[in-house]
Amino acid sequence: MITLDAALALLADAVTPLAREEVAIHAAAGRVLAAPVIARSASPRSAVAAMDGYAVSAATTVPDAPLRLIGESRAGARFAGCVGAGEAVRIFTGAPMPDGADRCIMQEYATRDGDLVRFAPGYGPGWHVRAAGSDFEAESELLAAGTRLGPRAMVAAAAADRAMLSVHARPRVAILGTGDELAPPGSAWQRSDAIPDSVTHGIAAMVEQAGGEVVTRSTGGDDLNMLEALAATLVAGADVVVVTGGASVGERDFARPMFAPHGLDLLFAKVAIKPGKPVWIGRARGTWVVGLPGNPGSAMVTARLFLLPLLAALQGQAVAQLLRWRHLPLAAPLGATGSRETLVRACWDDAGLRPIAMQDSGAQHALVEAGWLIRCPAGQPALPCGQAVAALSFTPDA
């Protein structure tokens, strides 16, 4: 066995990002940038009004003195002339400031009489103008390569005025649940020794959230010949194959042997963590293969620790980006750790992290409330309420 840190270091060193491709900005949400996004123009491109009001020359404007209105400026329809002494232009929020004007006086201070406007005393001190380039200058890097295009990043990408973006290809992921006992949800009740295949559905949802594309999700029984043939199909059609179950040492545990005829080269096998010790990662015919335990708790914990960083690295992100451990307080005491590093599932409330009561690796219902993993070194003593611990969200930051 190797340590969690050692396994993650091996993964970080071994993964090469997938090829880049150009996609239209309307199809880029959730993708990871393969090249920086550079602003085509400044924002704003010229000085604009920050309020509805009147554009004037500050030096020639005094309270109660009439100014002649010579036009108006709206966003998308600027005033084409120049504002001189004794003149004003009606202006609206976001509209370009006319030449000769350097101040926007809020409409609340204005009194109009036909083409004349006066301003009440006290209309200062704000000038209510956004300077050209005050948000960003032309040729500024708005988003770095490796940025995942979440909602806020999409605003910046669009503001750069780029119709096409360079992104990494989405990892194609095949998911296989192994075990004679597995049955599709909705049918397991018809067979006394069957259980619903729950894990592959959780893994599929995790893959989709991570920007991957699930190309196939299937189950296979404990028949080595059949699984070897299935493995050939899976590695030929995916960038990553995730196989769940059959990761122990039983006589019918075929998760790894099924890939042996296809040149399985292990990166690591078994990690000194609890739950999830049997997790392994390797490559077969150039395709990444991730072996997860069959127990739902163990499978989801190890998928969070290893599968998500792998998918991120294939999309040009650093493994460390998916493993941002935070120091958060305990809302309840935490028991001592045994001989292996332990990942304790926990939930968050107003007082901090609260370890959930059910830590059994086979628990499924308890996963619903387990939004966090608390990292506990081997041999750690019991910790009191309020103690800060290293914690990882089950849902990575955008």
Keywords for this structure?
single chain; 398 residues; alpha+beta; Molybdenum Cofactor Biosythetic Enzyme, Chain A; Molybdopterin biosynthesis moea protein, domain 2; Molybdopterin biosynthesis moeA protein, domain 3; 4 domains; 6-stranded mixed β-sheet; 5 helices; 26 strands; elongated
What report would you give on this structure?
This protein has 398 residues and is α+β, with helices and mostly antiparallel strands. It has four domains: 4-17 and 169-322, Molybdenum Cofactor Biosythetic Enzyme, Chain A, CATH 3.40.980.10; 20-43 and 135-168, Molybdopterin biosynthesis moea protein, domain 2 (Alpha-Beta Complex); 48-130, Beta Complex (Molybdopterin biosynthesis moeA protein, domain 3), CATH 2.170.190.11; 326-393, Beta-clip, CATH 2.40.340.10. The protein is built from five helices and 26 strands. The strands form seven sheets. A six-stranded mixed β-sheet has the order 7-4-6-5-9-8, with no helix packed on it. A six-stranded mixed β-sheet has the order 16-13-17-21-20-18, sandwiched between helices. Strands 19, 22, 23, 24, 25 and 26 form a six-stranded mixed β-sheet that branches. Helix 3 packs parallel to helix 5 (296-314). The longest helix has 19 residues, at 296-314. It starts with a helix and ends in a 5-residue tail after the last strand. The relative contact order is 0.13. The model has no long low-confidence stretch (mean pLDDT 94).
